């Protein structure tokens, strides 16, 4: 199974690209949705956030986290932003990996991991290939101002707080140009799937890999059946699967 990392800048059209993949039947693992889940009462991240920031981050109901208020607290404070990341990123990674595994066992040839901070969080390392959705600087600012009701200085500050688009584009396997119409972006998504989707034979072979591993265990010498050897074999198989081999 091929794991594709999808990212972009704020308001460049990453969500539109995600919809295009879903429309083609490709499962999309949304890191933002997972982050929202982790902020629900009863979750470990929820408890860590409330313990660190206090009740000031809670909504009027004193139960749910006010994400807008939390965003204001961390936006201009690098230490607080780092603290929040430490409360959420490890748990987001675990859920992403679990959902990638679920896509694998369901027999999907491709899955997309949609992460706004794909490169910043180092999550590109779990993806065989990466896509960055980009548009012109002027379009990005205009779309952000319209979407979020921001002034020009506020929009500029939001964009400046992220990794420069030029750096994301440099790191990407391929760039999706969203400076024109949605139809053109959809065509680019179709081209990615046409070029990158593994063959049916390769997908089927990857599904048989664990079966072959289990069947071969009785044939191995006892000296090779140590726990460490088995873990190494499984890790190699998982890494190869995520790389689309």
Automatic annotation (TrEMBL):
Tell me its EC number(s), please.
2.7.1.24
Keywords in alphabetical order:
ATP-binding, Kinase, Nucleotide-binding, Transferase
Q: In its UniProt entry, what is this protein called?
A: Dephospho-CoA kinase cab5
The answer to whether keyword ATP-binding applies is yes
Q: Which domain of life is it from?
A: Eukaryota
Which enzyme type, at the first EC level? transferase
MF terms (GO), sorted A to Z: ATP binding; dephospho-CoA kinase activity
Q: Which GO CC annotations does the UniProt entry carry?
A: cytoplasm
Q: Which GO terms describe its biological process?
A: coenzyme A biosynthetic process
Query: Pfam families this protein is in?
Result: CoaE
Q: Which family does it belong to?
A: Belongs to the CoaE family.
The gene designation is CAB5
Protein species of origin: Coemansia guatemalensis
UniProt-listed PROSITE patterns: DPCK
